[in-house]
């Protein structure tokens, strides 16, 4: 079976930065909903699949319980934003909630997953962990934390770069198995999530450590191999390894998407332009096959 796993909050943010709050219907903002649904039909056409998994953030309280500073800078940035920016963010969140809790299910999608206190990354990892040997999966996201899930039957596609990162491509680039990527992040840290790593130890040096390329007499080797390295790794690995402890498993079901349901939803939202874009078979849209085995950074 083939799975398409969507990092929905990433896709929603991508649409938000492209369209803002330009679109409304019945005095309700719809830009994020429109862009997300359109992107979904395109992704389903680009990739052969048997199941589509919609993974949503539902807070990050579980990690915050472990480390109160986790993603703390995002809270500070929100508090420092203008009233107009705060209102815009509220409209964004409103649309994400409606997608997550109402509209996708109305279209007939049955695998809309989230769990209180966990992030979309955790949901995706939970599903990946239940894949069988003959299953295949493509994760759609630009979050490099998800690279730790890459394997012989799992790859990551970034709409931003248009690149499909496979296990072979990852190994060719870094010389380590993708499963070690979480341990690299545990040592180097993750600035976007406020996970503090070892000072002066970036991803390049951490990768060299796992490739046994650091000289034992070097300062980096001694620090990573010493108490400092062990302490920071032990603290951070709990934050960066996917899924976070306690994340539930999810029962994957067959979708019940029909043309009637899709068109009814499009009409309800006033989106005539996507009415005929039946998920998986968009009309008038040229299929684009992602480039395989490459990396795109941005």
How is this structure best summarized?
The protein is an alpha/beta fold and 298 residues long. It contains 12 helices and 11 strands. The strands form 3 sheets. It has a 7-stranded mixed sheet. Strands 2-3 form a two-stranded antiparallel sheet.
Description:
The longest helix is centred in the first third of the chain and has 25 residues, at 83-107. The protein has helices at 8-19, 31-46, 61-66, 72-79, 83-107, 120-128, 167-174, 181-188, 203-210, 219-225, 227-240, 259-268, and strands spanning 2-7, 24-25, 28-29, 51-55, 112-113, 136-140, 154-158, 163-165, 189-190, 195-196, 291-292. It folds into two domains: 2-174 and 244-292, Rossmann fold (3-Layer(aba) Sandwich); 178-240, DNA polymerase, domain 1 (Orthogonal Bundle), CATH 1.10.150. With 298 residues, the protein is an alpha/beta fold. Strand 9 and strand 10 (195-196) form a beta hairpin. Helix 1 (8-19) packs across helix 2. The chain has a seven-stranded mixed β-sheet with strand order 5-4-1-6-7-8-11. The protein has a two-stranded antiparallel sheet with strand order 2-3. Strands 9-10 form a two-stranded antiparallel sheet. 39% of the residues are buried.
């Amino acid at each position: 079976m083939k799975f398409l796993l969507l990092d929905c909050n990433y896709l929603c943010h991508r649409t938000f930065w492209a369209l803002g709050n330009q679109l409304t219907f019945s005095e309700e903002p719809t830009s994020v909903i429109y862009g997300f649904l359109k992107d979904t039909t395109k992704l389903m056409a680009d990739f052969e699949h048997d199941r589509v998994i919609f993974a949503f953030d539902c807070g990050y309280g579980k990690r915050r319980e472990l480390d109160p500073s986790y993603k703390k800078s995002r809270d500070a940035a929100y508090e420092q934003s203008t009233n107009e920016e705060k209102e815009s963010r509220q409209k964004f969140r409103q649309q994400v909630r409606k997608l997550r809790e109402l509209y996708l299910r109305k279209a007939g999608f049955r695998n809309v997953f989230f769990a209180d206190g966990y992030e979309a990354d955790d949901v995706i990892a939970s599903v990946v962990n239940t894949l069988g040997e003959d299953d295949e999966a493509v994760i759609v996201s630009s979050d490099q934390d998800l690279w730790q899930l890459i394997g012989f039957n799992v790859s990551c596609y970034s709409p931003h770069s248009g690149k499909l990162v496979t296990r072979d491509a990852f190994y060719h680039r870094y010389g380590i198995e993708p499963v070690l990527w979480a341990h690299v992040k545990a040592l180097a840290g993750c600035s976007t999530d406020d996970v503090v790593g070892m000072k002066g130890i970036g991803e390049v040096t951490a990768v060299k450590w796992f490739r046994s390329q650091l000289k034992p007499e070097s300062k980096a080797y001694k620090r990573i191999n010493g108490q400092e390295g062990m302490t920071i790794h032990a603290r951070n690995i709990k934050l960066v390894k996917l899924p976070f402890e306690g994340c539930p498993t999810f029962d994957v079901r067959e979708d019940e998407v029909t043309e009637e349901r899709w068109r009814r939803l499009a009409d309800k939202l006033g989106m005539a332009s996507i009415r005929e874009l039946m998920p998986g078979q968009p009309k008038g849209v040229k299929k684009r096959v992602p480039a395989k085995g490459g990396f795109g950074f941005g």
